[in-house]
Amino acid sequence: MTSEPQSPARDFIREIIDADLQSGRVRRVITRFPPEPNGYLHIGHAKSICLNFGIAEQYGGECHLRFDDSNPTTEDQEYVEAILRDVRWLGFDVGDRIFYASDYFERLYELAESLVERGHAYVDSSSEEAIRAHRGTVTEAGTPTPHRQRSPEESLALLRRMRAGEFPDGAHVLRARIDLASPNMKMRDPVLYRIRHAHHYRTGDAWCIYPLYDFVHPLSDALESISHSICTLEFENNRELYDWVIEHCDLPARPRQYEFARLNLTYTVMSKRKLLELVAGKHVSGWDDPRMPTLAGLRRRGVTPEALRAFAARIGVSKHNSVVDVALFEHTLREDLNLRSPRVMCVLEPLKITLEDWEPGHEETLDAPYWPADVGKPGSRSLPIDRELYIERSDFSLTPPKGWRRLAPGAAVRLRHAFVIRCERVVTDADGNVSELVCRREPDADADGSKTMGTIHWVSARRGVPLEVRLYDRLFESEAPGADDSDALADLNRESLRRLDAIAEPSLLDAEAGSHWQLERLGFFFVDPVEAEQGRRVLGRVVPLKDSWAKQTEPARPREPGRVKPAAAGRAREPLSEAARALAARHDLSEEDARVLAEQPELQALLQEALTVCQNARSVASWLVNELPARHRGAGAASLPFRGDELGRLVQMLDQSRITAAAAKRALAAMLAGEGTAEEVVRARDLEQTSDEGALGAWVDATLAENADVVARFRAGNENVLGALLGMVMRKAAGKADPQRVRALLGERLRSG
Ligand code: ATP
Ligand code: MG
User: Fold this and answer.
1) Residue-wise pLDDT tens digits, 214-238
2) Ligand 1 atom having least distance to the Cα of 270
3) Does 47 contact ligand 1 (Cβ within 6 A)?
4) Active-site position among 135, 196, 254, 262
């Protein structure tokens, strides 16, 4: 039951690194983890930290912790400290490799001046709106603003005055001069610097112009000689700009960017902005609220660094976005906590029982092992027992359902570590509520466990200690909180925290802050270290015992202790998310297509556009999910040279049988190459399906004449060759023929001939 070995998986990034080392492109592997200090780190960041620091460890290289702090208005020293604490807690040694992008401001500015001098950048004095309007759309090229023609001298003079603080915010920006017609919007003269009269938490008021991410990031990487700059998939479109910046500045190194899929978890929001909203709106007690997916929250919850690292290893690294079931995370926690948590007893909602055959005032002490036999660890504690005990109210039923194995009037149950009792009498209060049970001990008729008597936990009423227990539930009720741009706060689970005045066995009096326990039958718990600092003893539940993940996957889990296949572990068996289910229902999509669309808002946007011209959502979705990515490899939806409605027109033609599927694929490739609209490429390449029987017949006849040997085999009884002949005709027809009609025609000629 231990966590699986954390040996690094063979993922595509490690394959790239191996190849780079082999070819000599890279001598020393240097990665970086570049958080912006504008919030606390969350479990998604842990994936990135494990990847970057893990790679550095594995290859004997190093990983830089770099604060990506070029936005003065959102960043703060508090966050820097929290991030340092969290990375170290995860178990990675940052040593002296702590860097700040803000340390490079002077150097970045020099590089900006040199870009201007060489004509690669200019100062634009247009408003933000004007710049946006001139940028064009995905289907239309941008147009230059009047300032694009500025000479290097004029731009340089303005840039220097910008830096000197002569202009208000927004008066000018520095833009790269790249390509306003680029299919990649990021390349249409991106802004490199803007004026912002704001105090920076490190550089103070030294600067009033600040560089933007796309300028800062590649340059910081190069200045630190990073070999592999690993980021999440949203930055795929930024890569071209990343390379442009590196190429056009004079730098000591040429880092390269690689993208991997970010971690998404069901029932969890994973954006610092949304987490900040929870904190600022006081929906949680702070960044370290144990319900938060922040590392500070998870730490306070009782999640260990080892469990987080095992989880990161288990989910692996992939190139495709997916949502991991939070149940898989909880399953990993249980595996980790099982060996750390001595078993003790605590009653959350006490119901008093009196053993009428026990002499009043008499007390005994049981020696109860801390660990179950299968864990096999030594250690035990003394457990006092006497005439009055507490059991869990929910372990008694006045009207037990069929198969009830706990206490009921006249029924017997085993007390953990003690003996069997039978309920003789039920005492009720004035309102008719059960207030006490009178029981008697009896011989254990089921000592070998062959009958179906249950075992319940209990605590001595006199010696038990009062204790606050907190039960945490998911912060959000919905599987995909805030999906479809809805307000995540609307999905908040109002009952995510329950506080109970519980009674624990006395051994828990000595429980140290930050220690793990299993409260029998209730779950794994952690003595809240933050409450302990205030002198309060609070036991918070890390995770209940019931393992929905293990149950869900039981038949499919490998017997041997080997690794669960990375990524697939989260994916294949994942139930459809709520967002995906809603999409599938709304548009009658296949589950698989809905799943992909739900995870990729850009594709959903294209679907919406397509639906304005084509009603067949199922068909459009299938093209978006299957055909488009296959032909538009590596590039995001933002760099498509056409909009969704154009794809809609193409699918419409297919739907109306104007073109065959093969022709539609060809047309799509041409559209992606920027050859025109759907109508234009179909016309230009003459892809429209032929309805002319004469043309079809000619293709069929020609094929049969050229393949007399195949025809002979068909006539000798080998009907399998029909498929081959069909393929040959279709190729001759260049996708313009309806395969069903060709098949019919072929059959006719072969049988008649
Ligand atoms: P958020 O969207 O939560 O605000 P961010 O990307 O803006 O996150 P950064 O501080 O810029 O936050 O992130 C630092 C690094 O962590 C980046 O390299 C980013 O790609 C990575 N990262 C952020 N979120 C995730 C995630 N969910 N899974 C994996 N890596 C992540
Ligand atoms: Mg970011």
Assistant:
1) 999 999 999 999 999 999 999 999 9
2) 3
3) yes
4) 262
